[in-house]
């Protein structure tokens, strides 16, 4: 991988902590894991965690596992497991081994018995609501459960009966016996197991008790010999509990380190939000090109490199902040500028006739595929007497600084000739239907002998050679910077951008047909586009990835959003 990651020099706080531990001999290896819950598709925030975990292992010659944190059977599904694997591979990473927390259910059960025997866990009969009441608040200590002093033998028997299905859902739970007056609420006798009759996507109906996240995560890390368990800030207050379980069990004890979640302006990445957008049909599925999911970005035409580079650029932080979405968009622009072949495509055409062009003649002009990559070679573009140009590249009367085409003015056609406009034809409503020009035969690109200079260059296609393609102009899904924090009584659904998708017909030079699904292309002077999977033998479909320049920033400056 020729990424920024390999070039970066300063160490972030996680790397510094790791290196200190390696120096002190607390750990010999840097083993990490990426632990998604299979309850939705991966999003751009996950990409950051993936880059971090896989990146740290790689740079220290350690291992990084993929572990599905599947302790919540109600929301999880195998569809998500498969999608997550595909997305990680697409992003350019491969796990050392694949695990499921559910593989450890037997071991976790045995460890729970061990804590019961040592007097560190007990079966509690409080209902969920009572438990909440006993737990206290941030300012008030909790109270001991009346079941807290059950003897280990009784607890063991009750726990075995919980597993055997003797009690209804929610009737009992297994709790760690820690400290109901702890200032950290997570330490107030947290639940380890709940009774839940739910079919699990891997263990089926084997279990009617399920371990909680807290009781599962650290022990799973320990079993896999993870040294650094990297997670996001909301787990900082769970760290004492993570440590308590490992210490009580006397097992390998990984170090949990937290960093701030990635948050991007104008996006909503929580699976909860995304699931609703998908379920209610506000978008066309998890891989809709407007979604902040990795599968959405893939279909939108983002490259894995551009996402990895973005993750490196934003770095890791200890405090929450919002990153401007423009940085992600610029990252994809930067990469595509290097790799995307250039093609001419007209999205809003007006006819241009060259009145001195020899009838029926077709010239094959020569254009460079990518000025950033001369080795990508050249292509020929058919040029004829009837062309299409962008409507807004022409003005009948234009200000002095309008360097495109105007009546009485001249412009260069990219990889073509200089043309001079002498007239226009209009319909009854005064709309221009045809632009009349002459061409200057001396000015053919590549063999211009005229010495003429013009200020502007515009793109064009030959009308009879143009390939009509369906172009999906994707734009931001939300119109506000922070769709998650809407005003009272409004939800993020009220900020959906009604113009997040507009479909137009594009007229492309014939070369466009030679590109496969997933190929990114720069439409000259317009933006980056990708061939969509909906393309058929008859109809090519392309998605806009990003315009060449940021248009939102400009609109905001003019106060037009909102
Ligand atoms: P969400 O509900 O947004 O999908 P999550 O934290 O519930 O987030 P998990 O599947 O549990 O999602 O996360 C897997 C890993 O990815 C965890 O280590 C989690 O901390 C990390 N992660 C999730 N969201 C982000 C984010 N926005 N930025 C960085 N890491 C994240
Ligand atoms: Mg979650």
Structure description:
By secondary structure, this protein is α/β, with parallel strands linked by helices. Among the domains are: 112 residues, Glutamyl-tRNA Synthetase, Domain 3 (Glutamyl-tRNA Synthetase, domain 3, Alpha-Beta Complex), CATH 3.90.800.10; 124 residues, Ribosomal Protein L25, Chain P (Beta Barrel). It has a 7-stranded mixed β-sheet with strand order 10-25-26-27-23-24-11, with helices on one face. It has a 7-stranded mixed β-sheet with strand order 21-18-19-20-12-15-22, with no helix packed on it. The chain has a 4-stranded antiparallel β-sheet with strand order 4-5-6-7. It is elongated. The chain binds adenosine-5'-triphosphate and magnesium ion. The site of adenosine-5'-triphosphate has 15 residues, from α2 and β8.
Quick summary:
This protein is α/β, with parallel strands linked by helices and 562 residues long.
Report the total helices. Answer: 13
Q: Which assembly state applies to the chains in this document?
A: single chain
Please give the share of residues in helix. 25-40%
Which descriptor suits the 3D outline?
elongated
Overall average residue pLDDT: 95
CATH topology of the domain at 342-465: Ribosomal Protein L25, Chain P
Using only C-alpha atoms, the radius of gyration works out to 31 Å
Strands, total number: 27
Main-sheet strand order equals 10-25-26-27-23-24-11
Annotated CATH architecture of the domain at 342-465: Beta Barrel
Largest sheet: 7 strands, mixed
Query: What name goes with the CATH superfamily of the domain at 342-465?
Result: Ribosomal Protein L25, Chain P
């Amino acid at each position: 991988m020729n990424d920024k990651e390999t070039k970066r020099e300063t160490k972030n706080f996680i790397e510094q902590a790791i290196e200190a531990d390696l120096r002190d001999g607390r750990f010999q290896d840097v083993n990490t894991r990426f632990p998604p819950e299979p309850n939705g598709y991966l999003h751009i925030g996950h990409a950051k965690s993936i880059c971090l975990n896989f990146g740290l292992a790689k740079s220290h010659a350690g291992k990084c596992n993929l572990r599905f944190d599947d302790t919540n059977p109600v929301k999880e599904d195998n569809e998500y497991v498969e999608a997550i694997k595909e997305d990680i591979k697409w992003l350019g990473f491969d796990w050392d081994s694949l695990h499921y927390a559910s593989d450890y259910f037997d071991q976790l059960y045995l460890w729970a018995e061990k804590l019961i025997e040592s007097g560190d866990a007990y079966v509690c009969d409080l209902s969920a609501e009572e438990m909440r009441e006993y737990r206290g608040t941030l300012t008030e200590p909790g109270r001991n459960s009346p079941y807290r002093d059950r003897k280990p033998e009784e607890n063991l028997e009750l726990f075995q009966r919980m597993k055997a299905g003797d009690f209804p859902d929610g009737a009992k739970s297994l709790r760690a016996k820690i400290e109901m007056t702890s200032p950290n609420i997570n330490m107030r006798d947290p639940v380890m197991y709940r009774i839940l009759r739910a079919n699990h996507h891997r263990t089926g109906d084997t279990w009617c008790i399920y371990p909680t996240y807290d009781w599962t995560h650290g022990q799973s890390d320990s079993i896999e010999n993870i040294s650094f368990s990297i997670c996001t800030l909301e787990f900082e207050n769970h760290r004492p509990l993570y440590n308590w379980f490992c210490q009580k069990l006397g097992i390998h004890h990984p170090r949990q380190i937290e960093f701030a979640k990635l948050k991007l302006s104008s996006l909503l990445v929580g699976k909860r939000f995304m699931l609703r957008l998908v379920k209610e049909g506000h978008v066309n599925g998890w891989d809709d090109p407007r979604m902040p999911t990795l599968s959405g970005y893939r279909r939108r035409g983002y490259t894995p490199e551009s996402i990895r580079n973005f993750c490196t650029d934003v770095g890791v932080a200890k405090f929450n902040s919002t990153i401007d979405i423009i940085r992600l968009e610029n990252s994809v622009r930067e990469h595509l500028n290097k790799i995307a072949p250039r093609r001419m495509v007209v999205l809003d055409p007006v006819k241009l006739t060259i009145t001195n062009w020899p009838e029926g003649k077709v010239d094959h002009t020569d254009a460079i595929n990518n000025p950033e990559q001369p080795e990508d070679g050249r292509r020929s573009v058919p040029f004829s007497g009837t062309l299409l140009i962008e409507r807004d590249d022409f003005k009948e009367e234009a200000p002095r600084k309008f360097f495109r085409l105007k009546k009485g003015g001249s412009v260069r056609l990219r990889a073509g000739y200089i043309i001079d406009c002498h007239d226009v034809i209009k319909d009854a409503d005064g709309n221009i239907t045809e632009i009349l020009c002459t061409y200057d035969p001396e000015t053919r690109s590549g063999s211009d002998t005229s010495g003429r200079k013009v200020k502007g260059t515009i793109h064009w296609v030959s009308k009879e050679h143009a390939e009509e393609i369906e172009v999906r102009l994707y734009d931001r899904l939300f119109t506000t910077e922070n769709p998650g924090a809407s005003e009272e009584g409004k939800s993020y659904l009220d900020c959906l951008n009604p113009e997040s998708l507009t479909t137009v017909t594009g007229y492309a030079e014939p070369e466009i047909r030679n590109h496969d699904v997933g190929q990114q292309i720069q439409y000259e002077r317009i933006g980056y586009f990708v061939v969509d999977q909906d393309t058929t033998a008859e109809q090519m479909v392309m998605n806009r990835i990003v315009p060449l320049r940021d248009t939102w920033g400009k609109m905001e400056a003019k106060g037009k959003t909102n």
